[in-house]
Structure of Cysteine dioxygenase:
Amino acid sequence: MEIENYDTPLENENNEPYSDPSKVVRPKSLEELIQELHKIFAHEKVNVDYVQRLMTLYISNKREWKKYAKSDPHRYTRNLVDEGNGKFNLMLLCWGEAHGSSIHSHANSHCFLKVLDGKVREELYDWPSESSTTEMKPRAINEYETPCCTYINDNLGLHRIENPSHSDPAVTLHLYSPPFSECDSFDQRTGHKQKCKVTFWSKFGQRTPFGKRGTCQEAQQYAENN
Ligand SMILES: N[C@@H](CS(=O)O)C(=O)O
Ligand SMILES: [Fe+2]
């Protein structure tokens, strides 16, 4: 699948139903948003601006997403909402007060982040050189709140996200295409990177099996039953 920016002309612009962001229709519900995303990502070419606009237009409704919003007091959680026919992963991230991610890349995927509740702060970074031993300093800092949807990929740089509030949680909706299970995580003081596996705290509203009892077999059965 090829993903391109809006300023790259599409080969078949006249026949392409998902090419003009000004034509996006507001999805009436999370379910409708997901249906639209399925249609868009079934195409060979996907327009980043179109997806970003569609996600921006969705009006966050807690009643629709609260079953996915499984949080943890100690760190942010990743909760799988939809597997996008293998083309994308859609997930809800719950950020407790002052929770944040480390500086990370996105495994050559496209990453859309929409705020559903609260606010998040994003620090953007350039990739450090392979031999770096110096502290990484953000090149920009942004704050987002609903209905905003932002976008990043590895060509645009690295980022970390945090919930800047010490009193309110935050919830974000992330779409990654293609889906990934591993990314690079960076040590801010040195710029050194290491591979980091990313896992789900819950899938489709059910807490993911983990710990001693979370054997592969159980995980497999869980996947088959859900
Ligand atoms: N990309 C991060 C969340 S964020 O900090 O953008 C993740 O998937 O866990
Ligand atoms: Fe990220």
